[in-house]
Every structure is written in structure tokens, then in C-alpha cells.
Amino acid sequence: MIEKHLVQITNELGLQARQVAATAVLLEEGSTVPFIARYRKERTGELDEVKITAIRDRLEQLEMLDKRRESIISSLDERKLLTEELRAKVETAPTLNSLEDIYLPFKPRKRTRATIAKELGLEPLSEILWAQDSTTDPEALAAPYIGNTVTVDAKTSTVDTIATVLAGARDILAERINDDATARAQLRSLYLNKGTIKSTVISGKEEEGAKFKDYFDWSEPAATAPSHRILAMRRGETEGFLYFRLTPPENEALGTLFGLFVRGTSPAAKQVQLACEDCLKRLVGFAMEVEARGFYKKKADEEAIRVFADNLRELLLASPLGQKITLGIDPGFRTGCKVVLLDRQGKLLANEVIYPGRGRGEELEAAEAILNMVRLHKVEAIAIGNGTASRETETFVKKLNLPSSVQIVVVSESGASIYSASEIAREEFQDLDLTVRGAVSIGRRLMDPLAELVKLDPKSIGVGQYQHDVDQAALKRSLDDVVISCVNKVGVELNTASRHLLAYVSGLNSRTAASLVTHRDINGPFKSRAELLKISGLGPKAFEQAAGFLRIRGGEHPLDASSVHPERYELVDRMAADLGCTVQELLKDSVKRTSIKLDSYVTPEVGLPTLKDIVAELAKPGRDPREQFEAFSFADGVEKVEDLQPGMKLPGIVTNVTAFGAFVDIGVHQDGLVHISQISDDFVKNPAEFLKVGQKVQATVMEVDLSRKRIALSLKTKVDLAPRQPKGAPGNARGSRGEDMSRYMRNDSGKPGTGGDWFSQAQQKRF
Fold first, then answer.
1. Whole-prediction pTM value?
2. Rounded to whole angstroms, how far apart are CA atoms 168 and 565?
3. Most exposed residue of 95, 186, 501, 563, measured as fewest CB within 10 angstroms of its CB?
């Protein structure tokens, strides 16, 4: 850990030096972000996970910068180019770009036009031109160099005219300008602050690349371009339909170089000016465009990843129904509905297939099968996947006159098919059909979304935008952080959790999680947290990191079911003894808890933040931080897109929040789009400030495109509707006013947008 890094991070993040230093030490000791945020508040000054993660990531970035610094110094030293002045510049370079600018003139490079010019002996002439003396006659000075030759690899180069001599000298000057750190820094700033992104269609690709038609002739400032448009244009370029550039005003770029290098209007100065123009066009301009494109790609990636991470967090922390005997139903028409019976721990008890849509006889058999399972096994909830035949199946089940205590819930099955075919599912249900595994996942997702969703690759859940276009390593790191954060926020039941869920607990990994499950299977349920130390490969450090996030209901110590860390059991025992009671009595008696004088228990290691957390936990030991489950139902009688009419107000669930709006499931197998302009009566800049994945809303249908099955929705209190389309109008994407549906699918510039380019992969399939 380098002290200068701590100072830099302190300034960048606006934190106190002691907070950054303490966090850095804890991270260096192997502590996890959730552990530090929950159990080391005194040391960090109560930093939350967001700030701790920011410190961690910045430390890693600066360490990478230091490694590059060391590599450059080593390279310069080996080639006898390292001076004390150069070393000082390298060691104090604040960014990777500035470091590379310093190194560029000394960087080993391939044979260039400037290299050839030097081999031809033109460097003395370039130095004279660079001086820009008013008395210098470039052509006269160039004449003696005519006829100079050089042979490399049997290839001979010759300068045979004054023009080629001067061109060679300018090649040397152009490379010199390109290598100038000041010039690069100023041009970099110009490209980043005043650069314009432009996209045009590649000739002959208009029809094939129609989904990118909004970008066939597009231009806007790079600094204000939203992430989804930048990613859309880059995708169009990658797929071979668009030509994409990022350039600043050319006169300002040239003016920057002229201001730095051109002195006066002499003939020699004119040669330097020409070298500047060549350098911008051939060398530094290209390099700065690549850098600027990379900068805005990274910025767009970060925004897209942030949106994905926020959506994933909401999905993982969705309200659980809890431990109830549940039927999971994966609906289907032709192949029937796969029905599974799960006990309160999610264990599969039975499965069968019913065919409620094949005629009266089979419908009666299906009804009898459901009724028998509900009656015999005292089923408390029925989870129905929201895929094909979902609403028809829901209607069928609701007509069975089941006990009112049985909750019927339509559950998102996004990613269930991927789970069904995964190694995890094969391991759990080796002999079962994929569709049965999917039904199990649907039922478990209702009982505990977090425990089931951790088995999936987060990218398969479909709550992001452009997830396949962003930096995959950065995406995985961010999503893994979210999963770890959510798992540890909720806590994990040690005696019932799967190894896949346990692997995300602070301090554990897939290997130690597997060891825990094996020990549990052989020796029976854990009776105390202390037994964790018997697990092979789980040492004191891992125990410290994990114990507080693992719960044991009915354990030997009453606090084993809480988030109170074992390292504080002795403290709680002392609190109880001081009040003349047991810990168990302290948990039950609110009067005794309120009489605890926290100041009496403050020590250098334990301050008021931790003491307050302990007392709060004593009031509700092992409480689930997720919201209480509330049943939700779609509107009866509205089951497919053809049932929709403009003006309908329908209940819906937000399935995805993006930079340009949100998608809402209204129960017709196609998510509707609520454009950012239709989220609220007030101006909305960031949809995430108003909507969350899983949020229940009342949406108004604005317009329906039957041919493309697109639905435009509004959450405004007053909605200006287009004239109604006749129900079932064939293939007409326009209303009676001749207005294109895409005006309701527009991007946030107000221009029509390529809906397919905005969607996650799952939503593109739906639309």
C-alpha cells in the first residue's frame, strides 16, 4: 500500500484519510466488502459498501498503473535511456495516458516513415526547419540531399527530388509533433470535450442494416451522447452496417498544433505547418480518436453496467413468499403444463404433466390432479411461469375454487430454461426432464428469489441493456459484487442453503461451500456457528468473514440465528448478566433491551455504531431485510396483445429499467415500453429514480402495433392517446393519423429509435 495512493483516493472520493487508510488495510488483510461494511464500522468511520467498493477498485487501478510504471522504467533502464529527469517524470505521471505520453518518444517501434527519413540522412534538415529561421530557404537546403539512398532488407529507398527531400524532413517533424506530451494532452482534451460522434450507413447496407436506420446519418456531441446511443452505433459498426467516427472541429485541432509549434510565416514555418497538418491527419489525430472512442465506450459501459447492476439488485432482493408448500407450474399448450410439488424447503416431492387445453375430458383430469395435490399436501401457494400459455393456465387454476388461503402468483421465468439445462440443474435432478427442472425453478423463485437466482449467470436474467456489447470482465465484476452484497445483506440459513448460495457468503467460495454441504450431509445439521471451524479448508480468517452472515435456527446459542457476530457474543452475555437475565430473556424483553446503557460498553474496538446494530438485532434476530410479500394479479380477460385497446388502464410489473425508459409486463406475453417521457407528469432525467425492477404500477395503453407486437404504455396521470386502431388491424404499424408507432419507441432525443437496439437479448426475442 503506497501512501500517495491513499492521499489521491481521499481527494478523489471526498473521504477522510483515516477512512481510506483503514479500509485499505482491511482489504489487504483479506476482509470482504460486506464484512467491512457490517462489522468494522468503527475502523472505517461507517463507510457503506458503495464507498468501500470504490476504494477497492481505485486501489487496484492505481496498482496496475504502478506496474506499468515499473515496466516502463525497467525498459528504459535496460536500453540505457533512463535519466534522473525522465525517471522523475515517469514516477509522477498521474494517469496512464500521461504516463504513455512520456514513454512514447522512447518506445520501441516498427520502422516508420520518419525512421526511413532519418536513415536517408534527413534529420539535420528537419532540425533546421524546426528552428523556423526567417532566412531559411527550405528548397535550397534540400538540394544537397537529392540522391541519398538507404537499403534495408534488399529494398532501396531514394530521395530524387526537392519535394521528396522536404516530405521526408516533414515526416521526421510529424513524428516529433506526435510524440510531444503537451500536444497530446491538449488534443486529448479537445477530442473529449468538443468531439462529435458521427455515424453514416455503409453504402449498399441500407436494407440489411435497417434496424440501425436512425444512425444512417447521425451526429451529436460525444460529451452529451447517452450510453445506449453510443453502444448502438458501435454495434452497428461492429456488425458492418455503420461507419462511425469521433472527431473535434478540425480548425481547432489544427489551431492547437499551430499554436504550439508554428512560429511566424516564413518558408520554414510553412514546412512545420504542413508537418502539423500531416501529423493530425496521419498520426496523432488517429491516436486521439482511438483514445476518445475508448473513453466514451468505457463511460457508456459503466452506465449500462450500473443500470444492469441496479436492476439485478432489485430482482435479487424481491420479496420472498417464504417457506410454504408450493406447486410450481411451467405452462404449455402442446406439451402440457409441467407441475411440481415442493415442500417448505423447496425439495421436490412429486411431479406430473397436465393438459388443461386439450378438450373437456383432459381439462377435468387436470383440474382433479391440481385439486388432489392441494388437498392432500395442504398446498399453500401456486407459482405459474409467465411464458407461453401463462395467462390461460392462470385462468384455469383460478376457476378451480381453491381455498382462499392458496395464493396464485404469476412468476417471471426469465432464465429458468437456462437453469434447466445447466450443470447445476443436472446435478440436482439428474433423471428429470428439462421442463420439470424449469417448473422447480419457477416454484422456488416464488419462495425465495435470491436463493434460486444465484444459480443463474446474471446475464441470462435479462434485466440489462447492451449487456453483450460492454466490457465483459467489468460486467461480471459488478454483477458478482451485487450478488455477494445481496446474499450477505439477507443472510443465509446454514442448514438449508444450497452450496451455490453458500458460495456467495463472505469468506466462502465454491470449494468451502461444498465442504460445508458435505459435512452437513454426513453429520447432520450444524448446531452452532463454532462447528464451522471443523470444516476442512475453513480457517479462522474465513470463519471471521463468514460467521455473521450464516444463520442457525434453533442453534445452541440464541444469537446463532442473528446477524450478531460470534466475536460479540461475550459482549451480549455481559449485557444480559448486567441486567440480571439470560440472553434468551433479553431477546424477548423489550424493556430490558431499552435499559441497556450503550456507553458502558464502548471500547477501542467496539463503538456506538456496532452497539446500536447489536441492540437492533436483538429486537428482531435474523430479520429478513426484504419487503413483505404482496400478491399481484394481472387484469382478468386481458391475456394477449389483441385484447389491448388504447386507453386501457392495467396493472403491471416493471421488468427492466433502462436509460431511455422502462419495460412493464401487463400480462399479455409482451412487455410494453414506457418511454422516459411517459414515466411521470414531471420531467424525468433518470428513470431509475422513479422506477425499480419488480415495482407494481398502473399503466395506460397508449398504442398497440399488432404487426410487430409492440406496446406503448404511459404512467402519466393524463395521457394523450392516438386514435384507436381497429382491433385486429392486420400488419398496420400506423394509426389513423398516419403516425408511425416508433414515435412511442423513440430515444430520448425525440427522434425515432431502433427499438430492437435498446432491448436486452431476451426482450429482443419477445419483440
1. 0.86
2. 73
3. 95
